[in-house]
Design goal:
single chain; alpha+beta; 9 helices
């Protein structure tokens, strides 16, 4: 009987020295096709040369590579350097956007108040100012609101406050009513200008709360005496301007946002 030799796995794999790498040919073909496709797509695209040059000049100016008198790399409101700390931090684009939004809201309120006064023929009876505190409505007009050494509201003062009262009552903001007196020494019944100015602000506050429906929990009365004049001099016109009451609709924005309001106001005025 003869014995035939058995063939093992080593014999079955005869002729194969390593792994099969035929997949690489297909992979390289795919990469080549993709590269050709992107080259064709790039060749088919068009470049706006004018916009490219403007971008190049803007970037070069912004990074200090060159000085340009015609290309301005900034738009909108530029935050003054004095409002930044030493590290260039403290204010962000978010703060600036919020300040612009707050300015828009205060401006819209100013327009509504002005329209209400215009409808009653009282459009020139008050002044409006937007600053870091909010919107200030100045009751300034000679004897229009208060007589000399008096806290009594005139008929026109009541008409002005009545025209604005409904709008102020609908606002969620806190309100500061601030009284002022001129530089002359008062006479009885007011021992000083402190009492006189506080009495004027209190009368305005009472009208807003009792007659116009303003919520008493969000309004305050302040008397500044003659310490904050808006006009220098002792003439009748200057004294009349300093004898006033300011109604300040206080901004509810964060302090960082409120500090940017004057910058936004200046930018809007320059447009």
């Amino acid at each position: 009987m003869s014995v035939r030799p058995r063939r093992g796995r080593a014999a079955a794999s005869h002729g194969h020295d390593g792994p099969d790498e035929r997949w690489m040919a297909s992979y390289l073909d795919m990469i080549t096709v993709l590269m050709c496709m992107f080259i064709v797509m790039f060749a088919m695209s068009t470049v706006d040369q004018e916009k490219f040059e403007a971008l190049r000049a803007s970037l070069a100016t912004g990074f200090g590579a060159e000085v340009s008198d015609t290309t301005d790399a900034s738009e909108g409101v530029v935050v003054p350097e004095e409002l930044l700390d030493e590290k260039g931090e403290g204010f962000t684009a978010v703060h600036l956007t919020e300040a612009e939004s707050e300015f828009d809201q205060l401006s819209e309120l100013r327009v509504r108040l002005q329209d209400a006064l215009d409808a009653q023929g009282l459009g020139t009876a008050v002044t409006f100012t937007i600053d870091e505190r909010g919107l200030t409505v100045g009751l300034v007009s000679g004897e229009t609101f208060f007589g000399t050494n008096s806290t009594e509201l005139s008929d026109q003062a009541r008409a002005v406050l009545g025209a604005m009262g409904g709008i102020l009552a609908a606002q969620p903001n806190e309100i500061s009513v601030e009284g002022h007196a001129d530089s002359r020494t008062p006479v009885a019944p007011f021992p000083t200008n402190w009492e006189l100015s506080a009495g004027r602000s209190t009368q305005v506050l009472r009208f807003l709360v009792e007659s116009a429906g303003v919520d008493g929990t969000r309004v305050q009365s302040v008397g500044y005496g003659d310490t904050r004049p808006v006009a220098a001099g002792a003439g009748d016109a200057e004294l009349a301007q300093n004898r006033r009451v300011d109604i300040v609709i206080l901004s509810e924005a964060e302090e960082e946002v409120r500090q940017l309001l004057p910058t936004v106001v200046a930018s809007a005025s320059a447009r």
